[in-house]
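Worked example

This section walks through a single chain of length 317. The input is the sequence exactly as stored; nothing has been trimmed or padded.
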Amino acid sequence: MTNSASISHDSIKAAPISSPQSGVDLTEATLRRQRLVDPSPAEDECCLVQIYPPDVIEGMLLLEEHEFSIGRSPETDLPLFDNSVSRQHAMLIRGQEGYLVRDLGSTNGTFVNEKPVQSDCSLRSGDTIRIGSFLFRFLSAGCVETQYHETVYSAMTRDALTGTMNKRYLMEALNREIARSTRANMELSVVMLDIDHFKSINDTYGHLVGDEVLRTFGIRVGEICRSDDLLARYGGEEFCLLLAATGHEDAREMAERCRHAVADAPFDTAAGALPITASFGFAVLNPSKPKSVSGLLGAADQQLYEAKRSGRNRVCG
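Given that input, the structure is written out below as C-alpha cells.
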C-alpha cells in the first residue's frame, strides 16, 4: 500500500476465471473497485466495503453512479457470482438526502442491519447491507478514513458472520493468557462449543438459514459471557470460549448457562422457529503443569467429542 494522497480511480478487471456455480466468464464483468490508499473522498462520495467474505484488504468500491445495480448478472454494476444472489438483486439509488437501497424482488431478500428491506430504505454511514451470502458496509464521506480502518481491523479480528472474534485472534489471545496464567499461578479454562446436527440444518433449509442460526448462536452465547471472556468462531459451526482466571466448577457453570441459552428457546429463522441445541466440552489449565495452546484445545475437544458421543446437548469436562 503506497502513500498516495488519493483514491485511485483506475478500473480493476476481474480475473479471467469462471464461477463454478454460474459458469459465467468473470472477464465479462469489470468491477469498479477503488483501491484505498489514503482515503480523502469528496464530500458527496460514498463507498461500499465488502466484509463477508472478507475482501477489505483489496480496498473499497466507490459509488459514483446515481443508480448502482447489484446481482448475479454480469451486466450489473457489481456482479456477485453466487447462487444465493438473484440476477437482478438490489439497487443503490442516490437521492437528495443520500443513498437508499431497493430490493428488486430477489429470491433471498436484501437486508440492512439484518432487517429485510420491504421498501426503499435510506442508508446511514456504518450500515451493513446483506445481499445473499455477501455482507457489505456502507460508508459516507467525512468519516470514510476512520471507519474504513475500523472495518479493516474488525475484519482481521472478528468473524463477520457471527460478530464473534475469529480463530486468528483467539490463538494469539490463548498464547498470551496461558503465559499470564502460568506466571500468576492461576487457572484458565477453555470451552469448545459445537451446534448439534448443523449439517442437517444446511441440507434441509439451505445455507442462508444456516447462517441465521450461526448469527443467533453467537448473539445468545455472547450475551451470557462476562466482560473479560472471549468468544470466538473456531471454524464452521464450532466456537471456542476462553475463560481467564476460571476453574473447573465455574467453567462447568458457564458452559451450562450457555447450553440453556441455546436450547431453551427456538431460533427464529426464515424457515420458521427451529429448535437448536449445542454440545460443550471444556478443559482447565493447571498452572503448575501448563499445556501448549494445541494441548489445551485438544483436551477441550476430546471432552466435546465425549459430549457428542454420549447424546449431545450436554456439557463434559
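What to look for: The chain has two domains: 46-156, 167-315.
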